[in-house]
Specification:
Length: 111
């Protein structure tokens, strides 16, 4: 069995707000840290059946960037849901909401 890790480094300011978020995978020993402005981690607890979520973003993340981040995350979540459940109807409804969100935030143009 091999163990793979994703390493996330967060630098905080004096008020404990993220100044910097960096990550890398130890799959590649020569990999460098990649800068990020935001991340969202969601873990489903096997025993309690509860979801633990951690979301952080840096102070320099702009509103338009957050809109794009949420739009892409919603779309990815719908794709993940379909791959896991094969529930095409509900996954399509989730994608429709992602598209609505994208249009409302002007990430994509209205059709």
């Amino acid at each position: 069995m091999s163990i793979n890790r994703i390493i996330i480094e967060i630098e905080l300011d004096e008020k404990n707000y993220p100044d910097s978020i960096k990550w890398k995978s130890d799959n590649n020993e020569n990999s460098e840290f990649i800068e990020s402005k935001s991340f969202f981690l969601s873990l489903f607890d096997k025993k309690t059946k509860d979801t633990m979520e951690l979301d952080l973003w840096t102070k320099d993340m702009q509103m338009i960037e957050m809109d794009r981040y949420v739009f892409q995350s919603l779309s990815s979540l719908a794709d993940m849901y379909y791959r896991a459940t094969k529930n095409k109807e509900l996954a399509n409804d989730m994608q429709k909401f992602a598209m609505f969100f994208g249009e409302q935030t002007q990430i994509i143009t209205k059709k």
